[in-house]
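Ex. 9. Protein: DMT family transporter.
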Amino acid sequence: MTVKAARRAWLTDLPVLLVAVVWGSSYLAAKEVTTAQTVLAVLVLRFGVVLPVLVGAGWRKLRALDRAQLRGAGVLGLILSGIFLLETYGVVHTSATNAGLIISLTMIFTPLAESRITGRRPSGAFLAAAGLSVLGVLLLTQGAGFTAPSLGDLLMLGAAVARTVHVLAMSRMRSVQGADSMSMTTVQLGGAVAVFAVLSTLPGTGSTAWTAAAELDAGDWLWLLYLSVFCTLFAFFVQMWAVRRTSPSRVSLLLGTEPVWAAVVGVTLAGDRPGWLGLLGAFLVLAGTAWGRSAAAPRQTSVVEPAEPDRADTGLEPAGRS
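Predicted structure tokens for DMT family transporter:
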């Protein structure tokens, strides 16, 4: 590789790595701005801010979607709403470090579920990596001594399962295959916001978006805009840009560092203190997911994933987040 080519590759890699960093920090951001009573309101505000930008940027291709594609995207949007609800309620009730590491189990759950569907037995190396990751999560959630996992830990585990369902649904729904990724992501986010808005009007579900918006102080708005602008819009468009200039595998590898940054942010900025057991568990989760990604790579099929969320997914083949 020439010096010029190496410099060009680095200039492409750096923004993608920044996406992994902001996604890793999004758990702390969500935790700072959200309470158990404002989860739905914050989700409406967070994605309501970015939807007009996505619609405006992709209006022509959005109008070209046929009815089958719209129905498929609508179904995926319902699943996506479940992911965001589980993630956001989960991060309210657990640490930013735990949230970021537990959700990374999606990288283990997805190949396991796919092998179940296709009937292809996963390799011994992958099963060992999966076992290592699960052991890591058990230690991570018991860092202060062996107790029952917290409600937040269980919700994040549910979010990882829901992400797996979302990925598999996207890869197997014929109606969405070949559709424009930006348009599909926009419809999915729009459907998810509609679900949040409806749920927020029900009794006992907490503050409405308008009430929460009025009660947010300047610091809360900064966190909310960070989630909207950087963790969603920036992440979406960087992936769109980078996948055209490098390989999907390279983008996926860089985005796969997200749980590392979640742990770094949780420990250094959020003040998480997982203890020695927790630190060992964090190491095992990271090692297991990295090993699992490598072991499963030859068997994995291409899928179209949505942008962000809290790290929101982008609708691109290499994306690792929903």
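Check your answer against this statement. Residues 34 and 42 are 7 Å apart (CA to CA).
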